[in-house]
Amino acid sequence: MNIWEITEDALNGLGVPIAANVMISPTGGTLPDLYLVYQLISAPPLLHVEDYEDMRFYRMQVSIYSRDGLSNLPDVISAMIEFGFTRSSMREMPYNPDTRHYGLSMEFIYTEDVIISESQ
Question: What is the pLDDT of residues 49-67, one digit of tens each?
Answer without folding.
Answer: 677 767 788 999 999 999 9
